[in-house]
Amino acid sequence: MNLLPKVSSEFSSSKYWEDFFKKRTRSFEWYGNYLELCGILHRYMKEKDDILVIGCGNSDLSSQIYSAGFKKLTNIDISKTVIKQMTNRHADKQEMKWMEMDVTKMGFDDGHYSVVLDKGTLDAMMSDDSCDVTIDSMFAEIDRVLRTGGRYICITLAQDHVIRKILEYFPPNNYLVRIHKVRVWTSTAEQTTEMPVFAFVLTKFMKLPSKIIEVCFDDSTKPTRVESESEAIEMVKSQQYYAMLKNQLSNNEASSDVPAIQLFTNQVHQARYTMHVVDLKDHHPAQKFGIFIIPQGREMEWLFTSVVGRLQVAKSARFMRLVFVALNRNHKYVDMQAIQDELSTKVMELSADWLRLETSYASHLASNYSQIMVAGLTSVINEPSDEFRVLIIGLGGGTLSLYLLHCFPHCHVTAVELDPEIATVAQEWFGLSNPTFEGRLQINVGDGFEFVRNLAMENQDSAILFDMVAIDANCNDPSQSLICPPQVFISDVFLTSVIEVLKENGTCGLFLNVLCRDPSTKTGVIKSLKEFFPQIYKAECHEDVNEVMLCF
After folding, report:
1. Which of 134, 235, 342, 423 is most solvent-facing, going by the fewest CB within 10 Å?
2. Does residue 369 surpass a pLDDT of 90?
3. How many CB atoms lie within 10 A of CB 78?
């Protein structure tokens, strides 16, 4: 069930946005980098597409898209200086074009492009709402150069006058409108001014029987069709309003002037949940963050409706931050577990920086040894867009697999995990069930040693070969001098099997996460590896006692 916060009228005022932009120190970085946008871009762009980037500026986005395999790329900007700089900077990318051109007067043939990409250009041109004629010319030119079935992908902060202009022009002109929310990570210093970034994907049709407007704020769910432009605007504003409240709570205490947060469903116009946040930083709390679900029938008691009453409960519970959740009597609830499942995403977003829980980001590798393994890929592939296959023994939480699948669009991962529960958690809770990974990820539950042995025997009759085999497993026995990997993964039998499943091009390798405090045992590990791999590179982890051995 999609829960939406109640909207404040503040987002219709220009003053709010003026204050927002004054507080921001960066410009187009607000709109996300390639790693943050690639999920949207790869969904709506194909390598065969003719792509036009308007208002390209000096962003690295076009270069990164090109390196990911999108070669038919043309960039335009009104600045002659920018075009000259970018032409010189990317002279090695011979198929990519840079042209000085006004987006309102483009010199391209009708229907020349299948994708027009706009990262912040519309927002820059609509810095206020007094330029309707210019924007109409821009939209008309985009419509002219787009072929039928083409997509105008507009990355925007969706200020009130911007979203209204988009929805005023495109739906009546036979464009299917789909609105995504982009996950952009800001620096700690700017989290108090963080606002959501949206990707408007506008698909051109010859003729639509009626207006189609869809919203998809969570890529794990199907797009929701809305009835009108005003409903779409309201849903976008709800995300902005919720972000404003999170900004207010992010680094500061939840004071008494923090408004209640009401969450609605799409179907009902009465709040399903009402939430109040109370902080107790000065009362030596025992726990960091908690949620108190008020028992049904007691939500009108003084203890829960008043600031003083909630403060008393919070002091008794002893949490640094306590979120009170009231259930609306006009809604039906299955049970407490269903309520927790429904609320989990929203309430966890209310935790402040000083008590933030760890979260798995697809484009971030927390462990130093995983970073070293990915760095070792430079010996295996030439470009991020190359197609390659990786076998990972020891899936764990799936962070390495997730990173490879997210950042390398043609990487195929086969992962093996001994513990079925861990494999399930990695899939269901750490992003590996993302439908965009379908066909590129295979998870096997079982013994990694036996899996590689069986695969090596099968390869006598087939050609399932890998560019990289990564071992990230431990023996779970602290009495052993070699903790990672288990001794069996250094045996001649296993290493022989690894050779059988690696491609024979001289650049493929075995990467091992090694945890060993005994120098003699470590020497023995290296000696065993040298029997099979002529080149061994060793890198120490700065934060841990682990080492990574890259064997080629």
Report:
1. 134
2. no
3. 16
pLDDT at position 135 is: 94
**DSSP-assigned letters across all residues of 285-310:** -SEEEEEEEPPTT-TTSHHHHSHHHH
Are both 382 and 347 inside the same structural domain?
Answer: no
What 3-state class would DSSP assign to 373? helix
Phi and psi at residue 13, in whole multiples of 5°? Answer: -95, 140
Helix (H) or strand (E) holding 251: none
59 and 156 in a common domain? yes
**Are 189 and 279 found together in one domain?**
no
User: Can you list the positions of beta strands (E) in 34-142?
Assistant: 51-54, 73-77, 97-100, 113-119
222 and 292 share one domain: no
Letter for the amino acid at 335? D
Residue 12 falls within a domain, yes or no?
no
Compute the radius of gyration of the chain from its Cα atoms. Answer: 27
CA torsion 519-524-528-533 (nearest 10°) is: 30
C-alpha–C-alpha distance, residues 323 and 263, integer Å:
14
For 235-290, the pLDDT digits (tens) are 898 888 878 777 777 655 555 556 788 887 766 567 888 888 888 766 666 677 88
Q: CB within 8 A of 484, min separation 6: which ones? A: 472, 473, 474, 475, 512, 513, 514, 515, 516, 546
What are the Cα distances from residue 421, in Å, to 395, 445, 488?
A: 11, 9, 23
Whether residue 20 is contained in a domain is answered as no
CA distance 485 to 487: 6
Domain that holds residue 206: 28-248
Look up residue 348 and give its two tokens: 């966890």
CA 187, CA 426: separation in Å to the nearest integer?
Answer: 27
Between CA 398 and CA 417 the distance in angstroms is 10
Alpha-carbon distance values, 429 to 2, 358, 360, 539 (Å): 18, 13, 9, 31
Question: What total of structural domains would you count in the chain?
Answer: 3
Listed residues 248, 274, 295: the one ending a domain:
248
Contact 328, 293 (CB under 8 A): no
**Residue 362's Cα: distance from chain center in Å?**
6
